[in-house]
C-alpha cells in the first residue's frame, strides 16, 4: 500500500509559517517520494497553502461541521474546506473528542459530511493510558471504529489514525509489539466490516512520531503511514520523516 505521511499542525500556524509548506513542497519536488504527503492546517491557511503546494503535497483540514451551511456561528462545513482547497479532513481527533465532547456518533456524521463534500477522511481513534492498563485498549479502539465509521461511507475513508492518547505530544511511545498488535486488530475490524475494501484503508500511527523513530515505526507490519503533530511544524523534521519512505522509482 502506498504510505500516507500526514502532518497535523493543530492550532499552530500564522502566515509567516507558510514558508514551511513551501519548503515541504519543494523537498517533495526535489525527491519525489513513494508516499502521499498531506498537511492538515488551521482553516485560515488552507487556501494560501494549497496554492503554494501546487499539487506537490495535499492540504487538509482538522475538523468540520456535519451540516452544509446554517446558523452555526464559528463552525466550518466540509464544503467550505473543499472550496478553500482541502482534499482531506481529520475527524475524531482525540483533542476534539476530549475538549469538544465529540462522540463516535458525531464523528460518524462528520464522515458523512466529508463524503458529501468530496473530502477524504482520516478517522482518529485511540485509548487512554488507563484503558490500556486495564487491558481494554483493543476493545476501546474496535468500538471506536465500529461507531465512527459509517459502512456506506467507507469509500471516503482514506485512513484510520491510531493515536494512543498517552503518546500524543508526550514523547512516550508504545512498544513495537503494542503498535503491531493494535494495527493488526484495526485491520481485522476493517476487513470484517468492509470485506476487501477494509484492506485498502491505510492505518496510520500517530503519537510523538519524529525523525528519530519514524523509520522503525513505518517498517512495522500494518503501519501504512504516520500522523505527525509536533514534528510536522518544521519542514526539515517533516521532510526527514518523508525521507524514510523510498523515493519514487
Ligand atoms: P504529536 O501529535 O506527533 O505531536 O504527538 C500527533 C497528533 O495528535 O496527531
Descriptive key words:
globular, EC 5.3.1.1, cytoplasm, Triosephosphate isomerase, single chain, Aldolase_TIM, TIM Barrel, 249 residues, binds 2-phosphoglycolic acid, 10 helices, eight-stranded parallel β-barrel, alpha/beta
Radius of gyration: 17 Å
CATH class: Alpha Beta
Low-confidence stretches: none
In total, the number of domains comes to 1
Enumerate how many helices there are, as a single number. 10
Question: Any guess at the CATH architecture?
Answer: Alpha-Beta Barrel
Are any ligands bound, and if so which?
Answer: 2-phosphoglycolic acid
The CATH superfamily appears as: Aldolase class I
Structural class: alpha/beta
Helices and strands, in order, run as EHEHEHEHHEHHEHEHEH
Largest sheet: 8 strands, parallel, barrel
Helix content: 40-55%
Question: Could you walk me through the main structural features you see in this protein, from its secondary elements to its overall organization?
Answer:
It is an enzyme of class 5 (isomerase). Pathway: Carbohydrate metabolism; erythritol degradation; Carbohydrate degradation; glycolysis; D-glyceraldehyde 3-phosphate from glycerone phosphate: step 1/1; Carbohydrate biosynthesis; gluconeogenesis. It catalyses: D-glyceraldehyde 3-phosphate = dihydroxyacetone phosphate. Belongs to the triosephosphate isomerase family. It is a single chain. The protein has 249 residues and is of the alpha/beta class. Helix 1 (18-30) links the parallel strand 1 (4-8) and strand 2 (36-40). An 8-stranded parallel β-barrel has the order 1-2-3-4-5-6-7-8, surrounded by 6 helices. The protein has a single domain, classed as TIM Barrel (Alpha-Beta Barrel). It has helices at 18-30, 43-53, 78-84, 94-99, 104-117, 129-133, 137-148, 176-194, 214-218, 235-242, and strands spanning 4-8, 36-40, 58-61, 88-91, 120-125, 157-162, 202-206, 225-228. Bound molecules: 2-phosphoglycolic acid. 2-phosphoglycolic acid is lined by residues 8, 163, 168-169, 206-209, 227-231.
